[in-house]
Inverse folding.
């Protein structure tokens, strides 16, 4: 738990166009140390305030610091991970529960979400999108085409799908383990634990993407976030093409589309990687990725790429993901 007095409010900015149109929500610092989007949102606010950027239609809502406690502490979490088990809570147990009770109605009141993040290891920005259209129990969805267009519009050369279905596999394994009675473990074993901002958004009838703007300290991260906001506004017809000097992403650029298919938890503090991995490093079938504390090798079940390797993961949390080429058509 945090040892500082928690903030008592969220700062939310909203611009209502005089013509009806899409309702876009842009968020940043859901994880407090992921700040590329914070400066990007502040930059857009300034342009709107000074008239250099003109809202043509719709409603633009921006929350530059979604988790102010974690941001104040300069770390990923305040009391817990806000981007897991995100839902309204009648009896809040921690700071993130209280934030969720304010954030979820804003998500539900929006049509589209652009959620700005960053990651630990070096690597280029990439977009994460949701499932294909389906009527299943896990994540029913009907906005595949619009969400795919958004993922393509922000300008990355890599797009990743398959988050919630992959996370569900890890949750099944966690559920088989004996609980230590802690709230943290109870949350980690909850079937809703994989639900974050975009997943909650889809559950309320909207759509959205997560934009991972590169490594936390990447100086290009804020620019990637800024261009993504403006390009999203252009895509939705909310600002004019070429606004703020941002050109559309090259439609002919090569885009690698990957599908997550496995998540591996760190089970013990002495579990170690074989080497210093970066997101999207290639792995071959049978390659040793790491070693468990008892000496058991952790091998890649098939060829593909490693995603979000975290050498500092707490036991019981995600250590790394694995991805393979996707057969999905984005257009």
């Amino acid at each position: 738990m945090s040892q500082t007095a928690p903030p008592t409010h969220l700062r939310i900015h909203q611009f209502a166009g005089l013509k009806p149109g899409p309702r876009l929500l842009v968020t940043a610092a859901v994880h407090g140390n992921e700040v590329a989007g914070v400066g990007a949102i502040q930059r857009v606010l300034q342009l709107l305030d000074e008239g250099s950027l003109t809202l043509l239609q719709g409603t633009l809502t921006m929350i530059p610091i979604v988790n102010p406690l974690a941001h104040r502490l300069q770390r990923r979490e305040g009391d817990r991970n806000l981007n897991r088990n995100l839902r309204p809570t009648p009896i809040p147990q921690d700071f993130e529960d209280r934030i969720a009770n304010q954030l979820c109605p804003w998500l539900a009141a929006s049509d589209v979400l652009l959620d700005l993040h960053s990651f630990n290891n070096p690597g280029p920005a990439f977009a994460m999108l949701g499932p294909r259209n389906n009527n299943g129990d896990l994540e029913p969805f009907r906005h595949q085409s619009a969400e795919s267009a958004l993922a393509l519009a922000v300008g990355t050369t890599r797009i990743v799908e398959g988050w919630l279905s992959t996370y569900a596999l890890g949750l099944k394994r966690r559920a088989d383990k004996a609980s230590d009675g802690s709230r943290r473990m109870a949350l980690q074993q909850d079937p809703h634990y994989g639900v974050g901002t975009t997943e909650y958004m889809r559950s309320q009838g909207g759509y959205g993407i997560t934009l991972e703007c590169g490594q936390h300290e990447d100086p290009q991260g804020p620019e990637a976030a800024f261009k993504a906001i403006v390009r999203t506004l252009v895509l939705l017809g909310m600002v004019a093409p070429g606004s703020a000097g941002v050109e559309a992403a090259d439609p002919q650029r090569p885009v690698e589309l990957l599908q997550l298919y496995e998540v591996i938890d760190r089970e013990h503090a002495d579990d170690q990687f074989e080497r210093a991995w970066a997101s999207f490093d290639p792995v071959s079938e049978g390659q040793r990725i790491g070693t468990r504390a008892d000496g058991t090798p952790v091998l890649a079940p098939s060829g593909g790429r490693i995603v979000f390797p975290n050498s500092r993961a707490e036991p019981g949390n995600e250590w790394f993901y694995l991805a393979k080429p996707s057969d999905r058509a984005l257009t």
Observations:
- Residues 13-254 form a domain with the Aminopeptidase fold (CATH 3.40.630.10).
